[in-house]
Amino acid sequence: MRRPHIRTVAVAVAVTTAATGLAGTAFAGPSTGVERTSASAATTSTVVVEAARTAAFAHTAATGVSQGDDLQAQDVMIDPDGSRHVRFVRTHNGLPVLGGDLVVHLNRQLAYTGVTRAAGHAVKTSAAQAKLTAGQAAAKAAQAAKGDAGEAELVVDARDGSSALAYQVTVTDKGTSSTVVIDAVTGKVRSNTPDADQFLSPKLVDTLRKRGETIDPATGIGSDASAGLLGSSATGATSYPSTAHGTGKTLFVGNVGLTTTATSRGHYQLKDPTRYGTETRDAKGKYTESFGAGTKFTNTTNVWGNNKTTSRASAAADAQYGVTKTLDFYKKTFNRKGIANNSKAARAMVHWGNKVANAFWDPTCNCMLYGDGDGTMFKKPLVVLDVTGHELTHGVVEATAKLEPTFVDSDGNQYGEPGSLNESLADIFGSNVEFYANNTKDTPDYLIGEKLGLDQKFLRRLDHPSLDKLEGTIDYWSPDTYYTEVHAGSGVSSHAYYLLAEGSGKKTINGVNYNSPTYDGSTVKGIGRTKATAIFYRALTRYMVSTTDFHQARIATLKAAKDLYGATSTEYKTVDKAWAAVNVTAANTPSGVRH
Fold first, then answer.
1. What single DSSP character describes residue 485?
2. N or C: which end of the chain has fewer CB within 10 A?
3. 335: phi > 0 → left, psi -120 to 50 → alpha, else beta; which?
4. Where in the sequence is the signal peptide annotated (predicted)?
5. DSSP letter string over 506-550?
6. For residue 277, is it within any domain?
7. 456-496 pLDDT tens trace
8. Is 391 annotated as catalytic?
């Protein structure tokens, strides 16, 4: 799903100001306040990080921080009311700790108010020394993931309620990679996790193949009236590069305006200088995780594509449009500046690999990778808008809670509630990207993959997830959810979100009919999509960590609703009702789950 390891212990702190993310008047809630200058933000960051680190060691019973631990700040979030939240990763005796992440919460006066933590125990390795050498661990990892192993790094694996000395190894094969964790004492494979999240799971691909069903999205030829054509012009600046306005003739959303770069008079590049230099390139069939290895899209017309696959630029226009709309959604809605909130470009490569029937967010490349399809079961590139919104949201999760699957089978299918929650958030915010774009060629809805040409007319849906028979998506939580493939398990929290936003029962939105059931037969009255989305985003960025399960997600969203609207508010009460309606309650919380 993602690369779960700590890439480095010398991590730059990303300061998030106005971070309840209620930009402007898009969401009802507290105002964002005034954004600080970079110098002011950096000073504030240093003070807040030190206060949070001190608080973590002063409240060890709650935080789980112990002797030998060191905390490295990943993110500093400052709310309009002055509250602070610092997300940390951890080392123990100099070794990176898997599952050791935590968020320390402070008030305006920098006093400790609480913690959200992944490891429910102190991180302590046994006295046993490594019995495997790094080379032996790398060899075992290569065998497990069937690829070429990189250097083995000693870590502490604090996941699954214990602490063990282990080696972590990146294994690559055909331009993709997996992270394998090998027990340094026993040699057992503790985990083998794909670093990239593929939109279509191996299980789904196998199901489609057995059914003889194809994915063949309908093209959206013609102009998108809501966007209009901006023409092919530069700003009139005499110096280059400069901002230009061109037209994307996409495969799926018609003709759309694209902001591009004029590199010289009459020469253009598919790169958006108004969005941090966000760019789409052509992988030209290579299996590469290096964006620099992609070929730039350039031309002399500032018109990109021809609405058909006969032009390599058509898929690029879809990708660039989807990426920029996703960036705009996060910026306008949450004041989030880029996928990692660091004001850096989002990137995409189309025509990736040879007949690759998938699309995915790649954390190694920090970009979207789109295959062209295999030409038989998958007819076209998966550059559909909600696919891009879904996959880029995995990048947002990677930059925040880092939700991980609990285990992965030999075919690469992922399981466990944190992974299911990751997929759910990608569907939730992916559908919100559609609502934000409001493109007439891709009507906003609570359906995922509705343009893929599937017989059931969608891949997943948020209102009644079990109507998805391809993946066997579930409506409600049960103890068996732990063993459910993550795309199927995503239905639990996606359903809770829909009930929070739109309520139970029948409803028609933008011509699509919905009928959302509840586990307990209750009636839920929704609070609206904007408020529901604000609550889920705040829960993700403030109160979720790598191991958050559905019961902890319920607590996270309740805390977020309390922060935004108050503990006695209708919004807070509806969050509780929505989770109860999918059978996630305080009463049925499994033993061992932290509140």
1. B
2. C
3. left
4. 1-28
5. EEEETTEEEEE--TTS-------HHHHHHHHHHHHHHH--TT--H
6. yes
7. 999 999 999 999 999 999 999 999 999 999 999 999 999 99
8. yes
Tokens of 232: 């092919």
**Contact predicate 394/361, CB 8 Å:** yes
**6 within domain boundaries:** no
Give the pLDDT confidence of 149-175 residue by residue, as tens digits.
Answer: 999 999 999 988 788 999 999 999 887
d(CA 327, CA 426): 14
Active site residue 404: no
Q: Are residues 344 and 311 in the same domain?
A: yes
What CATH number does the domain containing 176 carry? 3.10.450
Tell me how many domains the chain contains: 4
> Choosing from 5, 245, 394, 487, which is the catalytic residue?
487
Choose the catalytic residue: 279, 289, 391, 485.
391
Domain span holding position 146: 127-195
Question: pTM (2 decimals)?
Answer: 0.91
DSSP string, 39-87: HHHHHHHHHHHHHHHHHHHHTHHHH---TTEEEEEEEEEE-TTS-EEEE
Contact 117, 139 (CB under 8 A): no
Judgement on whether residues 109 and 158 belong to the same structural domain of the protein? no
Please report which residue ranges of 309-416 form alpha helices under DSSP H: 312-334, 385-399
Residues 106 and 73 in one domain: yes
Do 416 and 359 sit in the same domain of this protein?
Answer: no
